[in-house]
Structures are given as C-alpha cells and as structure tokens.
Amino acid sequence: MIKKYLIEGMTCGGCVSKVKQSLEGLSEVEKADIQLEALQGKLKLSSPVNIKTLQEAIGHYNIQEVIEEPLIKEVATESPEKTLTTYKPLLLIIGFITGVTLLVQYPFDDFSGMLWMRHFMAGFFLVFAFFKLLNIQGFASSYKMYDIVAAQWNGWGYVYPFVELGLGILYLINIAPVFTNWVTLIVLGVSSIGVIQSVLDKRKIKCACLGDVFNLPMSTVTIVEDLTMIVMAGLMLFL
After folding, report:
1. CA distance 124 to 224
2. CB atoms < 10 A from the CB of 27, how many?
3. What average pLDDT score do residues 205-226 get?
4. How far apart are CA 216 and CA 146, in angstroms?
5. Omega within 30 of 0 (cis) for the link into 107
6. 46: closest CA among 32, 67, 56, 61?
7. Dist. CA 15–CA 63, nearest whole Å
8. pLDDT at 25
9. Residue 67: DSSP 8-state
10. What's the rounded Cα separation, in Å, for the pair 55 and 95?
11. Structural domain spans, the chain
C-alpha cells in the first residue's frame, strides 16, 4: 500500500536524506520518496504503520498523514447527508453539550442566555480537552501542522489541552469571568488564524479539535466552531 504524508521541518537535502533513511529503516516501510519542495513523503508500506512509530523514527521533524484526495473531493462536493456522516462525532458532541446546558435551566421560567453560554463554554472546553488528553502526543503532532503558535513552539501542543481544561473549569465555577473571556478571545482568536489559512490554502490535513480520536478533515466547519466560541466569549465580555 502507498500512503502520503506531510513532513515539516526539513530545510535542506541533508534533512531529506536523514528522513528517508530513518523511515526506510522501519520494517513496515519498503520505500520512502521524500520531497523537500512539497514537504511531502510518499511511503510504500508492506504493512500498516502507526503515525507515532513514524514520528519517533524521524525525531524532531513532524509528520502527519495526508487525507487521500478522493476523500477530500467527496467532502467538498458531497450531499448534506454525507456531510452529516463525516462530521457526525463533532455534531453529536456539540448537540449533547447544547442539550445538557439548556436542561440545566429547566423548567425555563427565568431562562438566561448568558448563563446558558457560560455553561456551554464550560462543557465545550471540558469535553474537547478530554478528547485531546486521550492522546496528547497525537494531538500535538496534528495541531502543529496548522496552528501558528504550535508551529513555532512544539510545547504549545502539549500545553493547549490543559489551557482548555482550565478555561472549562473557570467557566463552570464562574471565577474571574473577565479574565476567562479575554483568555478565550485571545487563545481561540490566534488558533483560528491557522485554521482559516489552512482552509483557504485547501491543505489536506486533519482537524485536531477532537484530538487524535476522530479523523475529521479541516474545513469551514472548524472555522465556524472557533468563531462561534469567540463570539460567545465576546458577548459575555462586553454585554
């Protein structure tokens, strides 16, 4: 089988040779075709290989599997029914968070939109942090492929899930709301820059919003997700 990968961090022919030699040293890799210009690698595999194994083999370079072209074309032109199937995990999670945070105020005699947004933000950050922490190394590897901060500082991918966890707790117990909303605006605002750039550049990479658990392609859905949270934080901060 042949699989394509995005490899970042290579700057010269020596890097290409090192990555090629390291990958071909794995028993699962029959041949590695590495290109510096496209920062891509095409691997001929004798058997499936875990992305973690490939990452460990090449060291400080970063490798991420490229979603196959047929899948991207299908996502771009698919029907609403297929779109729902592709993003079913994300939509279910958002739906559950929305439902639970609405029911918290049942029987809705004195429903507060601000309270609902605070509860939703708490649920969002706590749940999404949970999925990222299931495989923090896998998340960090995926996140670095498009986030502008993680691309410069590899440690940000390991810190980010704990930032989300902290924000979720702060929203839940309603401590320092001004600070919490400002941090949310800054963190998600910066994060959305890389997301928007990746979508505009039509990069075929995986969205890391649910960590390394689900294989969701980067798309406008991710942009809407980030911008919705930014708008909520702004409303709670300025209204």
Report:
1. 14
2. 9
3. 86
4. 14
5. yes
6. 32
7. 13
8. 92
9. P
10. 34
11. 2-66, 72-238
Bigger pLDDT: 136 or 214?
136
Which pLDDT value is given to residue 83? 61
> pLDDT category, 77, cuts 50, 70, 90?
very low
Spatial CA neighbour of 6 closest among 76, 71, 67, 72: 67
Residue 78 has pLDDT above 60, yes or no: no
Look at the block and give the residue holding tokens 């649910």.
210
Report the C-alpha gap between 239 and 201 in whole angstroms: 35
> Do 122 and 204 meet the contact criterion of CB atoms below 8 Å apart?
no
**What pTM was computed for the model?**
0.69
Phi, psi for 66 (deg, rounded to 5): -85, 130
What are the angstrom distances between the C-alpha of 115 and each of 5, 26, 233?
44, 53, 12
Q: In the chain, which ranges are continuous DSSP H helix?
A: 13-24, 51-58, 69-77, 80-86, 88-103, 113-134, 136-143, 148-152, 156-173, 177-200, 220-238
Which candidate, 139, 151, 160, places its Cα nearest to that of 210? 139
pLDDT score of 71: 41
Q: Name the CATH architecture for the domain at 2-66.
A: 2-Layer Sandwich (3.30)
DSSP string covering 170-217, please?
Answer: HHHHT-SHHHHHHHHHHHHHHHHHHHHHHHHTT---EE-TTTTTS-EE
